[in-house]
Amino acid sequence: MFKVLTLNNISVAGLERLPRDQYEIASELPKPDAILLRSFKMHDYEIPSTLKAIGRAGAGVNNIPVDRMSERGVVVFNAPGANANAVKELVLTGMLLAARNVCPAWDYVRGLSGDDAQLNSQVETGKKQFVGFELPGRTLGVIGLGAIGVQVANVALSMGMRVIGYDPDITVHRAWQLSSQVTQAASVGDLLAQSDFVTLHVPLVDATRGLLDERRIELMRDGATLLNFSRDGIADESALLSALDAGKLHAYVCDFPTAKFQGHSKMIALPHIGASTVEAEDNCARMVADQIKDYLEDGNICNSVNFPEVQMPRSEGYRLAIVNANVRNMLGQISTALADGDLNIVDMLNKSRGDLAYTLCDVDAPVTAEVVGALAAIQGVMSVRTL
What we know:
Layout: E1 2-6, H1 12-15, E2 23-26, E3 34-37, E4 53-56, H2 66-71, E5 75-77, H3 84-99, H4 102-110, H5 116-126, E6 139-143, H6 147-158, E7 162-166, H7 172-177, E8 183-184, H8 188-194, E9 197-200, H9 214-219, E10 224-228, H10 237-245, E11 249-254, E12 267-269, H11 278-298, E13 318-325, H12 330-340, E14 345-353, E15 356-363, H13 369-376, E16 381-386
Parallel strand pairs: 1-2, 1-3, 3-4, 4-5, 6-7, 6-9, 7-8, 9-10, 10-11, 11-12
Antiparallel strand pairs: 13-15, 13-16, 14-15
Helix pairs in contact: 3-6
């Protein structure tokens, strides 16, 4: 019986993927094999020694101490692309809200009073201050062409916009999904200089922290709108505030309010609802539950942020899953330990990612406690599981 601890409410659609005759699932559970969460901050959380995997029902993993989990051999999964449509729709909403000055216009109407005739007079007098512009013919710059960025780019094209994109690390899979009409920018600066709207779709890592600093914001077109549905640390708040106050930027639309921008007339801040749809929550929960199940039962790894992808079909026999440091002669030592235990290797797959390596091995006979002990005693081996 596997034990799965939930640190947030996880969609029932995902939990149903874990059969109750094999899985015990609860919000309070000692010695869990896996943890499922959404936004719970784990950095100060005491990690159980039994933990083998963490599943984040979403894309970002800033709330998980990934480096610490890697040191302990704990696989961290996420659900890339499961909420892409939800975020895409909110990005489009943000563009329309900014272009048509919807939020200040709404606030204006909410502040009116009087009978119908008085309201009509005030509306006719006041509406001229909310004149906006249309999207067709405008240029959208997309920084980050992952699951969300690709969808945003493609749908913007369908709305008559010109789209340019920048992502030096775009995958082959995403490149196949991206419309050939999207123009490639030579650099972030090149993209900023050409765009009426700029939307950010990159993770918050050291390389992207402060990506839009004062120098780059100055490169943006006068009257441009910045949309940030990634993370707040990607854009420099002080530089953005100065650009808004000076009229350099038309608006800043984001999904995470901060005190610095609170109440600013050119700021549209939403309460982190990018992935807050029933469909997205269900999709994320299903994806991450399937990944946890596949790892616990068969040792396969898919969509991990800290381990290599390892997929090996089960053959007839008995399976071992070994997490180890990525050092020389590890496979040789593993093979020797198995041979000493009179076990023949039926199938084996080893992959590495950075300092970590992971091995799946099917053998022809049951694996004894003595063999597990011999494998665990190899210097650099972090965990050994029999499946």
